[in-house]
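pls ignore typos typing on phone
2-acetamido-2-deoxy-beta-D-glucopyranose + seq
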Amino acid sequence: MTPTSPHSVEEYIMLHSVLGLVVTVVAVCSADVCRLPSHLWCSSRKTAEDCQVTQQCSAHDWRHQAAAPPVNLVLYYEALCPFCKQFITDQLYPTHVKLDGDILNITVLPFGNAEEKQEGNKWIFTCQHGRSECEGNLIATCALKTTSFNSTAYLPFLNCIETAANEHVLWPAVLKNCAVRNHVSEADIKSCMKSDEGNELEHEMGVATKKEGVEYVPWIVINGQHTNATNQEAQDDLLKLICKTYTGPKPQACTSTLTTDLSVSYKHPQ
Ligand SMILES: *[C@@H]1O[C@H](CO)[C@@H](O)[C@H](O)[C@H]1NC(C)=O
Ligand SMILES: *[C@@H]1O[C@H](CO)[C@@H](O)[C@H](O)[C@H]1NC(C)=O
Ligand SMILES: *[C@@H]1O[C@H](CO)[C@@H](O)[C@H](O)[C@H]1NC(C)=O
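k done
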């Protein structure tokens, strides 16, 4: 194209926008596939990559496709440790809500730095923050059982009891309040807490915690791996860590910068 001198302001503007459009099309559509109408650019990952619209496609067209296994997160914690409370209420629960259960598979083990010994046919627990912590651990363990280990059902309850958790907590009142508010059976949790089955389940939490070799709490395992660095990343910004770790198309909650990215990708060239 040989630009001729524009004869008017209108012609000048038109010439430049045509040049701009050509440059944009060349830059954005590096492959032939991008000659397809734009509504087909999200038809496959390859097409989207060629057209440099992967992120945009992920946020919209691919939202409901389960293209990769979820990220597995296992949390080892104890009921009254302040950083456990903070992690559950500021990171774990909000991230679970934002990701809508799609890409994050959460498992929690309430035991932490507790110790146990067997007396007769019962396990007796000793907890880092005293008897009250053992009670909080058992409430959470029994809530897991009561909800059949369904994280969508027990995480709102766990968030509720951890929000209330502190050294002076009155667990019976918290249990009642959180159970009612989150549609978990208070009666089932109470009877589990008194039963041999509840005692055995808390023991199993202890066995799994010792087996993992937990050195401190919260102890966060991502896809079977624990490092001090990822533990810290999870505590600082769990959503970011899960989005980074997930190998499938990122759900919308991961692409909150979409508007910014769009304006950069499609910026009119100078
Ligand atoms: C979720 O995590 C649990 C416990 O770590 C595991 O047994 C289960 O297979 C995981 N589910 C998926 C879909 O990966
Ligand atoms: C898990 O619990 C949620 C909320 O109570 C419920 O909607 C969902 O159907 C449950 N999932 C399974 C697999 O039972
Ligand atoms: C991880 O952190 C703990 C506690 O700060 C420390 O004792 C341990 O040595 C660290 N492990 C590694 C591999 O750096």
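The chain has two domains: 22-65, 71-239. The pocket of 2-acetamido-2-deoxy-beta-D-glucopyranose (ligand 1) is lined by residues 69-70, 72, 74, 105, 107 (CB under 6 Å). more later
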